[in-house]
Specification:
Blueprint (H helix, E strand, L loop, with lengths): L3 E5 L5 H11 L5 E5 H7 L1 H9 L3 E8 L3 H11 L6 E5 L4 H14 L4 E5 L7 H6 L6 H14 L4 E3 L5 H8 L4 E4 L18 H6 L4 E4 L1 H4 L4 H14 L1
Bound molecules: cytidine-5'-monophosphate.
């Protein structure tokens, strides 16, 4: 299965992001724009990064009543984005409404369901009224996303094998928590290497700091891409 690198553009503002992208060259094809940059610079930033030739993963993790999420997807559908996150815990009706808006307004867009945030453990999950273990909830919400027609999921590297096995080969699996061999773990607790993630069934890996903070970001990105190609 082919696995592509997505660069997480986790920088405080557009000027820094653009400086970084200039240093990167064009080996990286995908950029993830998250809440930090989107809430600061808005949709215009997405257009400006896409105009440089990048494909865009917009990580906004939408979660609201079905009509509102569908309306947000409709608004975002005018942007040049290829991947967009929604929260699966909004339920099947919300996911179906989002998917319907995508079908109508931007069929090339893949919606990615977020299951359980990896910042949540058993205690924090129980605290919000969900009994059991995060792994069970991930699988439950993964199945719910699948039957609601959502095209993909964001998951931790450890969840890749079971989600791939349970949900089949056609679902798009995107995983952060990837660290090239030798790179600092930062706060990623159980990271896989790019090659391991690719072999475990990821379609895309999201990598931020190992590239953003490298002395030579272009070389760091090329090393990740080479590792993916060899997997
Ligand atoms: O810098 P690093 O490679 O850890 O960045 C990973 C990206 O993936 C960040 O944008 C982070 O917010 C995101 N992410 C994550 N772990 C999750 C979900 C998202 O690291 N469980």
């Amino acid at each position: 299965m082919k696995c592509d690198l997505i660069l997480a553009l986790d920088v405080p503002d557009e000027a820094e992001g653009m400086k970084l992208l200039q240093r990167l060259g064009h080996d990286v094809r995908w950029v993830k724009i998250g809440l930090q940059l989107f809430t600061r610079h808005g949709p215009g930033l997405v257009e400006r990064v896409a105009a440089l030739g990048y494909r865009i993963f917009l990580d906004l993790k939408l979660h609201d009543i079905p009509n509102t999420v569908a309306s947000a997807v409709t608004s975002l559908a005018s942007l040049p984005i290829d991947l967009l996150t929604i929260h699966t815990c909004g339920g099947s009706e919300m996911m179906r409404a989002a998917q319907k808006a995508r079908d109508t307004h931007r069929p090339s867009l893949t919606l990615l369901g977020v299951t359980v945030l990896t910042s949540m453990d058993t205690a924090t999950l129980n605290e919000v009224g969900v009994p059991g273990e995060p792994a069970d909830q991930v699988l439950r919400l993964g199945h719910l996303a699948r039957i609601s027609g959502v095209g993909g999921l964001v998951c931790s590297p450890m969840e890749l094998p079971v989600l791939r096995r349970e949900l089949g080969s056609s679902i798009t699996l995107v995983t952060p928590g990837v660290r090239p061999s030798g790179a600092p773990a930062d706060d990623q607790k159980r990271a896989l290497t790019p090659a391991e993630a690719a072999r475990a069934g990821a379609n895309y890996i999201v990598v931020g700091r190992p590239i953003l903070k490298a002395a030579d970001p272009a070389a760091a990105a090329r090393a990740v891409i080479a590792e993916l190609a060899s997997a």
